[in-house]
Amino acid sequence: MSSEFDFGGAVPAWGRSAAEYEAFFALSNVPLSARVLDCGGGCSSFAAEWGGKGRFVVAVDPVYSSSGRDLEANFKPVAARMLAGVQKTRERFLWDRYGSPESCIRVRRDILATFLSDFRSGTASGRYVAGFLPSLPFRSKSFDLVLCSHLLFLYSAEFDSETHISCLREMLRVGREVRVFPLLDMAGKRSGHLDRTIKTMRNYADVEVVPVPFEFRRGDTNMLRLKT
Ligand SMILES: C[S@@+](CC[C@H](N)C(=O)[O-])C[C@H]1O[C@@H](n2cnc3c(N)ncnc32)[C@H](O)[C@@H]1O
After folding, report:
1. Is the CB of 182 under 6 A from ligand 1?
2. CA distance 16 to 21
3. pTM above 0.85, yes or no
4. Which of 90, 131, 170, 197 could form a disulfide linkage to 60, CB 3.0–4.6 angstroms apart?
5. Does domain 15-227 have CATH number 3.40.50.880?
């Protein structure tokens, strides 16, 4: 893993928006009736934004057993590390979407605020569920689409190939289709787990690497799609 982005584990307070998810996962054609699970949703505002539009979205993450206040407290130190890391490696990114490392931090702060404004009521209504891979607290085929953003393959140093496979099998158990983005690791290299994971998962599902309409880290332009 590149040291600029070594946080010693997956970073919960650093969330992405619905517009970003729509691009990472090419969501433009998802039917309004689809039941969607955001797996490892963390402080993404995706569930809040899509839920707010009347879509059925559940997000699951171990951090949902924490308070909003604790999650918020995580943001400042992470933002400082992220800013320093991105400033040092600026040329690894395309800046047309976010403008600058500083504006990228502002975008993340707004996303956190949107998530936090929904977290308490969303937890009460079942939108945010504490749980973790590879053993999710949902019945088989409860969802039409399961999304996993910035967890598998990105944290290739933390999770071995077997864990990637167990997590994908579990997501396929609870959903009919699974989409994962990104497929590059923390250093911006194709994940070393990808080929073995794809080969094994072909025993259980149709598996495809699909180009998506998003590029921030250079070359980070594909998702993995698995369908049963
Ligand atoms: C970098 S964040 C990504 C959050 C969100 N998906 C996004 O893209 O904005 C990674 C998230 O994965 C969660 N996570 C870590 N281990 C997990 C596991 N075993 N099962 C589910 N989520 C996990 C972390 O708590 C964290 O919220």
Report:
1. no
2. 7
3. yes
4. 131
5. no
